[in-house]
């Protein structure tokens, strides 16, 4: 009889835990969570596209514009 009592107590605890989890999940602001994820995805996309655009610009400048350099000059691509 005692084992049956333990089973009932354990099942009551599981139901109580489930109800507690449902209450906590119900309090999450899903709209804000989705907006935050979209914000980070947008920032990552913006940074990636900006990096690709700047790399392409540097390649175009190096390909189509020639600079006369003196011996021993070191010049950075971004100071053209």
Question: Please, could you describe this protein's structure?
Answer:
The chain is rod-shaped, with a radius of gyration of 31 Å. It has one domain. 75% of the residues lie in helices and 0% in strands. The chain contains 2 helices and no strands. With 80 residues, it is mainly α. The longest helix is centred in the middle third of the chain and has 35 residues.
For this entry, give a set of tags.
single chain, 80 residues, mainly alpha, 2 helices, Neuronal membrane glycoprotein M6-a
Quick take:
The chain has 80 residues and is mainly α.
Helix count from the secondary structure assignment = 2
Strands, count: 0
Are there runs of 5+ residues with pLDDT below 50, and where?
none
Radius of gyration (Å): 31 Å
H/E series: HH
Ordered list of secondary-structure elements with their pairings:
Blueprint: H1 2-26, H2 30-64
Protein name: Neuronal membrane glycoprotein M6-a
Organism: Sphaerodactylus townsendi
